[in-house]
User: Fold this.
Amino acid sequence: MEIFFVLAFGVMIGVAAYLLMSRSVLRLILGLLVFSNAVNLSIFIAGRLGSNIPPLVAAGETTIAHSANPLPQALILTAIVISFALAAYIVVLFERAYHVLKTVDTDRMRSAEPRSIDDIDKESRE
Amino acid sequence: MQLLALVLASFLVTPLLVLLVRGGLSSLTAVLPAALFIGFAALLPQISGGAVVLESHQWISSLGLEFSLRLDGLALLFALLITGIGTLIFLYASRYMVGRADQPRFFAYLAMFMGAMLGAVLSDDLITLVVFWELTSLTSFMLIGYEPESEQSRRSAQQGLLMTVAGGLALLAGMIILGQAAGSFQIAEILAQGPAIADHPHAPAIIVLLAIGAFAKSAQAPLHSWLPNAMVAPTPVSAFLHSATMVKLGVYLLARFDPVFGAHAWWSVLLVCAGLLTMLTGTVLAMRETDLKRVLAYSTVVSLGTLVTLVGLPNEVAATAMVTFLLVHALYKACLFMIAGIIDHETGTRDASKLSGLVRAMPATAAVALMGGMSMAGLPPFVGFVGKELIYEAGLQSSWPWIPVGIGLLANACMVVVAGIVTVKCFFGPPGPAVGEGAHDPPLAMMLGPLMLSLLGLLFGVMPGLAAPLLGPAASSLTGQVVSPSLALWHGLTPMLLLSVLTLIVGVVAFWRWMPLREFLADRKWIETLGPDAGYDHLMSGLSRLALWQTGIVQSGSLRRYLAATFGVIAVASLATLVSQDGLAFPALDSTSFAPELVLPLLLVVASLAVLRANTFMKGIVAAGMVGFGVALVFLFRGAPDLAFTQFSVEALAVVILLAIVGHLPFHEQDPRGKSERRFDAIVATLFGSTAALILFAAVAGPFDEQLSDFFRAASVPQAHGRNLVNVIIVDFRALDTLGEITVLAVAALAAASVIACVRMESPQHEVSRARPDSLIFRVCGYVMLPAAITFSLFLLWRGHNEPGGGFVGGLIAAAGCAVYVLPRGRDTLKKLLRLSPRTIAGLGLLAAAASGIFGLVAGDPFLTHKWAFFESGLALGSALLFDIGVYLAVLGSVLTFLEYYLEA
Assistant:
């Protein structure tokens, strides 16, 4: 069964990479969301999709015999929240960038990396 | 121990020198080189007897590296020259540099240079020699660029450094090959092996590399252009480094390895040709200049060419001629440089065309200058005559005598002319325009140097036998066999005498017609534009242009290109490794593979493609949300309830926050990339996606070791008192990880807060221009949802340790509730609701989480070992709850910061 999930993962990564390379900032954000979901999924798959019993010990017991793999779940839990924080921060930055630079095209956001020496001279004179 | 002390003394005493100069006692700095001179002179009897002093000290014993020093005739000659002339230079500089800025630094560099020079000539190890070699280049750079405000100084210093260091690089390569060919890096052992190394197949490479290094340092053509430009340095530097000592280091190197490679055809041909070419070049270029120092510099180039030629010539007389001329040249050149410095100091100009008739104002200087000039012109009874005769004798004994003799004639005639320019032209004749008021004989400190050097020139000329104990062993080092030189002033009527007379005639005629000759040559502009100096300029600007072009390609400034490069390289590298290392593997396809849950991967694929094809932002974000919910469903159906809750909450919040903050940005229907760009990106993306899938296939195909999971399943309840394994891992077993991760959340919140601060700074009182989602239903929902969400979140927090829940989910749900309440009401409501700023809440969360770890420390266990208190009612309270509360607060604070941004901007 992992085969099909891995195939879906491959498609998600491909789509995410394509969107991340977009020149429009908004498509980049969409790509980022898909990318982080895909990566979380990959950790889950790598932990093997064996049992689908939740890793919860029943009340009164001290152990559980078979369950889903708890370790990748713990890793993914924090990863989900952190990638959300990252995406939110990036969104804040892009919004501010739009406000200041008046463009959503990354190729036109040139204040940190001017296209040539002439641009640098222009900036320093402004 | 003695040699080591002599070498290291200059370095160790440098701080003391700095103090002396600061205290105004600059002339006392000459005590250092004087002491070193006496130290070396004490070794003279030993060396004259034919002995060689060897010293070896442990340096890095683990690598077997020793610091070994070797003193033989050649090294002693150099050492005495360095320290002797050094004494006079230090004394001279103490008066010359008065009034200049930053004198302590000057003397410090001078002392360090002297130490480096001594280390280079005394070094017995190839690599140590290279280290000291480069150190002399470095100190020379510092001294040439002594006045860095002047652009000429900077350019000359950089040119000198680049050329000598480039040579040093070639030298290092040559030394390494030599050391490996000889089987040892000790010079003593290499010399012991002698000509056997010349038969090694790598010998031509070694010779070429060593020659490049030596030629760069000793200003042989075409690498000579840095030496005249180095004359921008203060005169003591020019007299010391760039005439008498440092530039001769290359000659020393060639002389040192002459016994080894002397018989090799390449060696003599290369050295003689380069030397003769340099002599010619220097002669022609010297005639074009009027600046006294530049004229002397070019004559130094000629002399260096002579020395290199003499090293290359294989006969025994050449060896004697070389060491004699070394001594001779050092004596008169340093003397004349100091004279030029005195003239400059007293009259303010160095232009020979304007100087004339200074003898009336400076009679003593004129006398000393005349003595030095006569030695340079090769007139008896000065030692310059002895040296010149020996040069001609060596030339006559070579295979094709006419070439070295002919060029030698021209070169020596040039020396006559230069001597005439510096002495006769400047001092005698009618008073020229530059003789102003106040020109007078300089103080003793400045006069002592030239005086002693010229007197020594006279002494050694009249009684050349006095120098034999020093020059004999030096020449022996050159040839490898014992040489007893016959130095005498008068050898009888020999062809050499005839040549000397001829030289004098040519030189006097040339000097008599100097002005027209100089103008003729100076008008030949093509000499400059086609010369190596212009070549250097072209090279430097070409390099800059290349760097600019290359940077423009690699750092193009386009985010798309950077990402494409990153993805492409990762994909290609991983794919190549997978395929070449036979890592491709696929899991088996069996009956369990086909289950109703197959609809989930399909859902994910369809949702991803929907994101791709979205033509409005709303469609895009909803599709992205669908991807997220799809993943959440996977979690739910595959036994991960905690993850499913978290994923659902996060996805909902993400959709809301994203739409809120950037929903108003323009979203193009079509991707703004051009057609070819899209094709290229599609290829890269497909490659990247396939590689990722292949890697994951390979990972999943192998067997899985359940060890860790079994441990957690078994140890969770007994050790951590929790039945929710995932939460136990997060909060207890891997608590330090989680602490780091909530720190990341807090930092992201801080970063967003800094952007908020920017917004506030811009317009402190502005009203939010964008419309807020305000509807009655939304407002009323807020009243219900906020308390419900908070209660639910607290419930999840409490039960998280034993049932699905925990700090992460709790924090997210609380944040969602706050968001629903605050969004229609504005930022002031947020302030009133929380009373604290969201960052403070996040900070408190971090504090709580960290504090929960202290319980363990107090009990003597590692940090974050949770402690539990058990009550009779069955209630169990542990510091794990405090940690979870910390997580809850951190998540809440972070998410609310992003919300706050939306409300502010």
